[in-house]
Amino acid sequence: MKIKVGNVEKEMKLMNQLFHENNNSEVVIRGQILIKTFPNIIPFYNILGLTYKKIGKQKEAINVLKSGLFQDQNAISVLTNLADLYRETFKLKEAEELLTKSLKLDNKDIYGLISYGKLKTTQGKFLEAIKYFKKASEIKYNFDDVIVRIGSCYLSINDFENAKKYFEKAVYSKSENLGVHFSYSQMTDYSKDKKHQDYMLKKLEEKDLDETIKGPLYFAIAKSFSDQKNYKEESKFLKLGNDAINTTIISNKILNKEKRELDELKSIFADFNFENILIKKNIFSKNIIFVVGLPRSGTTLTHQIIASHSKVKGVGETNVLHSYFTPNIKNNILKEKLFSNGKLNEDFISELSLKLSKNYEYFSKEKIIVDKSPFNFWWLGFIKILFPNAKIIHLNRNLKDTVFSIYRSLFGTRKMDWSYNQKNIIDYTKIYIETMNFWRKKFPDFIYELSYESLVSNQKKESEQLIEFCDLKWEEQCLEFYNSATAIHTMSIYQTRKPIYKSSININEKYTEFSDFFKKIDNL
Question: Fewer C-beta neighbours within 10 Å, C or N terminus of the chain?
């Protein structure tokens, strides 16, 4: 591909067009050539870096943006984009250094302010996040849905009054982000107030509202009918919501990564004996608590119970393990590093254990960390080797209730693209079951199996046993987890700010419209 040297303006326009059309392969090819041809034109670094990020090549994205900073160390846009990448790969210290520099250069840069707010959210410092988001909103009222972000932060710290106020502002504004309706719906009891439900149903009639973006609105309407116990209408809008979102997903790539990762795990650990592992090199010896399971299986509830303990720091769902293992498990890279001459490579294990533990100690060096990312179930073999004193708690919930709760949830993350299609949910669940069975056979005594139904029905007994398993002394405040100040950013947060409720048990029985779906789950 030849590019006419000197025609920067034309190339800039074309690159922006290709980027927004998701013509990623051409952006990558052209971007590499343009950076060599015009090394001083910073926007080319941003477009190429963001494209690599979009297609999941985070390492390449980071390298491109670093090259941009080499050309101009004060390029605010590159500082912000690179900080976002560091945040997403859980290099939080590096992200903060870049954003501090960026805002020193321009303390009114709206992208830098919002990026810093996102970082503070990831750190669990929600009051600081609110400060940065509010500064951004003063510059441009609801840029990048900053009003919704403020509401989400208030929700995370139990300030429901302010959370609802900001969500309401966004709901009745001219925001094109329909996702705010779903956020607002989680805080509204439609059995008492139909105002928002009527508003949403009327909004559906707008002719310029494309079907592909209606998903969040459909989910919010479904929630409103659920509150009114109109399960038939709820079911109708749940199907519409899932179908709308599913049309935006590349279906032929769904679960390819998960299937490949399971094959890689088996390749690494099929013949490995986990008994009597002895690492002589220095590795992280403190306790870290991992709560794993399918999404919507009770991991958030369990996290909040444990995090209510005075010696525990709850960090919600982190990306510490996922951001390292997902890119490195490909093509036997990790297997080659993990073993040397048929034995564990202790130098590599020591280095990786201490490296990953630093990301956890970033939250607290004194307290025990509890990480509730459900996706950590992929990495249990690595956890067993790298963190020998870790505690693994695996949530088991009625499978039909779990998969239906997944189907009626709006997650807002690409990792959950499989959750908007019944067949994909079944296929993912099969992979999950196969993965957990693999780990159970490898180290049955390492995993604490916790029944969600038992926890809900026998809260005190199950909570006491759970805390004992974590090598902690019992504290009565663990029973009143909903009063805890533990800040956590997760979809289930509003529910876990209430006492345990039993209405979620056997919830699938109310939804006869999905009987065929449930029959397939019974056969797993």
Answer: N
479 DSSP 8-state letter: G
- Containing domain of residue 393, as a range? 282-522
Residue 51, domain member (yes or no): no
Q: CB neighbours of 460 closer than 8 A, spacing ≥ 6?
A: 479
User: What total number of domains does the chain contain?
Assistant: 1
Q: Decide if 507 is inside a domain.
A: yes
Q: Which uninterrupted H or E stretch holds 256?
A: helix 256-269
Strand partners for 448: 393
Cα 89 vs. chain centroid, distance in angstroms? 12
- Which is it for the CA torsion 69, 71, 73, 79, positive or negative? negative
Strands 339-340 and 368-371, sheet pairing: unpaired
The candidate with the shortest Cα–Cα distance to 287, out of 265, 301, 306, 308, is: 306
**Contact partners, residue 412, CB within 8 Å, separation at least 6:** 179, 491
Per-residue model confidence as pLDDT tens digits over 344-392: 999 999 999 999 999 999 889 999 999 999 899 999 999 999 999 999 9
pLDDT tens per residue, range 115-128: 999 999 998 899 99
Question: pTM for the complete prediction?
Answer: 0.86
Instruction: Give CB contacts under 8 A, 24+ apart, made by 235-242.
Output: 235/511, 235/513, 235/514, 236/513, 238/407, 238/408, 240/214, 241/214, 241/215, 241/216, 241/217, 241/410, 241/420, 242/215, 242/407, 242/420, 242/421
Which residues partner with 313 through β-bridges?
369
Contact 317, 426 (CB under 8 A): no
DSSP for 316-368, please give it.
-S--HHHHHHHHHSGGGHHHHHHEETTEE-HHHHHHHHHHHHHHHHTT-SSSE
Q: Which two tokens stand for residue 363?
A: 């939250």
Helices 58-71 and 320-328 pack at an angle, to 10 degrees, of 100
Q: Confirm whether 433 is domain-assigned.
A: yes
* Domain CATH for 420: 3.40.50.300
pLDDT of 488: 55
Residues in the chain: 524
Crossing angle for the helix pair 58-71 and 24-37, to the nearest 10 degrees: 30
Three-class DSSP category at 223:
helix
- Relative to beta strand 339-340, strand 343-344 is antiparallel
Measured CA to CA, the distance from residue 331 to residue 351 in angstroms comes to 21
Rounded CA-CA distance 421/138 in Å is: 40
Task: Compute the Cα dihedral for 357, 361, 367, 369 and give only its sign.
Answer: negative
Residue 306 to residues 301, 356, 388, Cα–Cα distance (Å): 9, 22, 20
Contact assessment for residue 245 and residue 418, using Cβ atoms and an 8 Å cutoff? no
